[in-house]
User: Fold these one by one.
Assistant:
Number 1:
Amino acid sequence: MQVCKKCVLPETYPGISFDEDGICNFCLEFVSREKEEAEGHFTDETALKKALEKYKNLKRKYDLLVPLSGGLDSCFTLVKIVERFELKPMVFHSDHGWDDPTATRNVEKLCKELDVDLLIWKNDLKFMRKLFKIFNESDEIDVSPCYACGNMLYLNGLELADHFGIPLVINGYSKGQAAMMFDKEKSQDWYGKMINTILETGDREFFETFTKKWEMLKKQVIYSGRADLENPIDSEKILFIPFFVFKFYQTDKEELKRICRERFDWQPMKVSYPARTTNCEMIWLNSYRDLNKRNYTHYHDEYSTIIRAGEMTRDQALKDLELNPPPGLLERLAKEIDVDPEDLK
């Protein structure tokens, strides 16, 4: 199994090729795009703070929505938004049934410390169980169950912002996750494959619920440069901004851990995948399925972009991406969504 010597993508990744040095085409292309992608973004916080001022509205209870997982990245983001940029957030935490209690406690402690409103969205457990079952059992290897789930949680945030009339969402997704969102061709391809996967089950009710949720995407505008923030957008639209664009994103997990512990006694999860993250339990089963069926996970894709951006070493990524689930966990999760672990191999 050939794996890129710069990132962590294997030869089974769609569209990949390698040069004579073992470097994949995605890494080679990224080098040529790096300067172009860096242009047009904010380089200092003074200009950014001024651009954000137009979202401050005394007549509106919330200036923006901030999804919060309870992990280091999103917690650090929320502190900066409240204390440095002086915005009034509604904080949103999505619980799909397999969240870790430690993550939820982190969310609750930080919101109390910052004195901001928190809304916890309890997802329809029956729907989420079926979603995980469908995409874990699917033979469509391009679409990870984590991708399908992540989109549902993302759309929850969009729905909330629309409901409360909030025009801005600052989301804590990483450069790797943002790269997937910005790739419209890939997103369209994956959406089509998700739809086909659901149609093959013959479950019309689930299909209608799933597709209706996606109608909310008509409301979004995804930030691509400072002009999106400085220029007015359609009053019916909601601007989504990845927080790393503002240069207060840090990949140094140990530094973030120190800051968050000092600020509000942040606590890590005992075990998580990838290592050093705060993710739900179901990620273990989803990633087990992905590794068996395609030799890489949803997070290999994400981390490869972060490596190319120079924010994580390849060695650290490989270490974080080692899948060593606690004994009995995969079997329990498989039982909870009614799948046979042997079918995931």
Number 2:
Amino acid sequence: MTTTIHILLWALACVIAAPLWVLSIQCLLGLLPARRRTGKNQDTPTLAVLVPAHNEADTITTTLDSLKRALPDSGRIVVIADNCTDNTATVSKDHGATIVERHDTANRGKGFALAAGLASLETDPPDPPGAPGAPGVVIIVDADCTVSPTTLTDLAQTAQVTGRPVQGVYLLSPPDKRDTKSVVSAFAFLIKNQVRPRAMDLLGLPIPLTGSGMAFPYALLKDANLATGNIVEDLALGLELAEQGHGPVLCDAARITGALPSSHDAAATQRTRWEHGYLSTLLTRAPALLLKGVFTFRPTLITAAIDLAVPPLSLLVSGSVVALGLAAVIGWFIREPGPACVLALSLALTALSLILARARFGRSYLPISAALAIPGYILWKLPIYAQFLVGKEKTWVRTERDPSPPNQAGTPGTPGSPGKGTSDG
């Protein structure tokens, strides 16, 4: 009986410690300079920017202004007014965008909107300079985000050079720096959407797609299965493309900015959708990816599964602390301190890697005063994870927008409109 307890305790320690080590290694590698793939004199391919929008009339003008400032001469903006009951289409048209209107209340969500936008390009697909008829680049930007002046060019050139999907650095900012929950959440997004992808990209491994600021060679995207109701459609698309041998790469120079909602109810709705969608994908896709990678001898799929298997930061930390306490108590009774020591060391390494990542990237996102609120933030999110066990979110729900429009991307901590993503940790 004692031997069985020893084995179970060590198994628990190893299972919990593994994602902590993965996260720590990613954070440490992410401190290194990012990979660059484009040159200063490189031509920019013809591109189309798809902007899925649902009742975004109050904020989309700032988004479109931002895109127009960044749009090269070879580009165009297509707004998909999806099941809108306001004047999103009219406002967008007045700001120079091509409009695709879609009305289908049975099939709602970003994936269906993107499929409609992509279908609209079939009669006039984007073509790169000097090669008529050849596929160009499609970029997807959410209707509540802004981009830095060189983002569209950087994304398009990287997609052209690599022939693969490209993800820019998509960050969210808190609506009020006095709101410690939003501040901590914004830092968690920075870890997930910039630091960890930098590490994967440096190693030549596929990174996850995070929802806004994604670029694709048109030939690669036109046959993709976009018309789904998946509430984390970007994450699913990235995994699907990685399985096909087209793992996404990072363009660290491209900056896309949104903001977290200020309303408590809107924040809870948004986080529930993200967390439940990510956890569902983790449980259903990570094991299959891992097995496929092993049996087909494809290390990229194995590493994609390992990256996906790292739970959201709040869940990982809270679960590790509980496991540490359990291992310490049981280990004291059976005189086996090893598992508790492994967990304590793993947590210490994770804490150190996050501190270094904050020093390198996140000082403007996470002041020391807000860092002290991290335990309270984790406790605030635990009911979301508990809800996943009894009734997980399965349908797309639009996050209520703040009345103020987003500001231009590129300045950390600048308020913008609420963004979308897969999980904020």
Number 3:
Amino acid sequence: MKRIFAILSAVLLTTTLWAQSPEKMSYQAVVRDAIDNLVTNTDVSMQISILQSSTDGTAVYVETQTPSTNANGLVAIEIGNGTEVTGDFTIIDWAHDTYFIKTETDPSGGTDYTITGTSQLLSVPYALHAKTAETITGTITETDPVFGSSIASGITEADTA
């Protein structure tokens, strides 16, 4: 009985995790110090804010992360996977408005964010392609054999009240 429960739990958990798209975004940056030298192989601190409407708009989400730079000064993080300060990344209504990403970095790993940048979040090619799902061209032919043999297949608009 315990074995069956464990198998069912594993199947349900796997199905649930597989069906969900990740609630995060990839972000990369090269970190340089005040005199434009690369900050390499160092733990840095970052605060990431998602701003609504403009570069100085309301922060709908803020998180902090402490990534390490590589030999080229590059940090790679997943926004939505850090320590949440305010807001909830999973409930941002991306269709509601324009959004901007503000990054603040402390190359020494503390909270004295001396490097700041803000830029608008723009569409990625696969998101632009997804807009084609908004319209259908041509005709749709029902090919479901179960529906075709059902009593319901003969119901017309006139049959409904």
Number 4:
Amino acid sequence: MNLKERFMNQLEGKTVDMTPVGCTTTYGMVDLMKKCGAERPLADTDAEAMTTLALAGELAGFEMVKAMGWDITPMSEAFGCGLGVPQIDLQYCIKVHPFAESLDGLDYPPDFLDRGRFPTYKKQFELLKKEVGDQKVIFGESEGAFTCAANLVGTENFMKWTFKRKKDVEKILDVTKQAMIDVINFAFENGADYYVMAEPTAGPALMSPRMFKKFVVPMLTDVVDRTNGPLVLHICGNTDMIIPLMCETGVKGLSIEEGANMKEAARIAHENGVRVFGNVATATTLFMGTPQEAYKESFAALENGTDFLCPGCGIAPGSPLENVLQLKKARDDYFK
């Protein structure tokens, strides 16, 4: 059983010899960049550098390979959001919300996949497939349709609109949902084995479970129904209240942070045929903690039933490689 077979069997709920380990969000770590020689911001825009950094995940013990860059802004960028200037330790972020004042002109452009960095991603998929073959899984990732919609008008505006301008929310989501479907299918057509939708804006810290059920569940369910491969849904924060709703969307996997109860999330997910990724803390343990703390937390995630031992969110650029290596060490020790 090679690494890809182990991963896909685990995702399907089949028997495997040990839990896969890796990162299913972003891992643009400075330590990895220095070791492989592919540094940001070049690794944000150049297919060869992007590929080199993606493959360098092996130096961190990762058994899955990320395509599509080191941030969750590509769809928003293609819709016209202005981005900040990236640095080696600073990823792209949204600075300009093009439809904050008016939705006039908002539509889904026919050349969407020719915009922004999508042509670069297409080249990167080609390079990764040549290097990885069928030995490891390759995954694509971007912001989800709900987070993209919030980026277009501003998160504070968008959350207010879920109460006061519901038709406008639905109008924006209709557009970003179609983009999401096409981007995911683009990734699968170019070699992705699974796709991660990052929806930080849809978490309980910003919206209630009732509003999540109203706006997010039907939208994501439609995305799942109209895409051509397994999807993983990542939501930040304490997602305990919405784990059943996340499963209801039909995704194959949930990626959760340390704020969520892994044991309970795994129980609910498994009852629904869904697998769980996580949930070693990124902002605290991996970034500021000790290797011993990272090892202990990784071991605990395994004991609590994670199906894929991963950081709970994107790894902070300044995180020490030694901390991140504890995930694989803990996994290997757990299964000895």
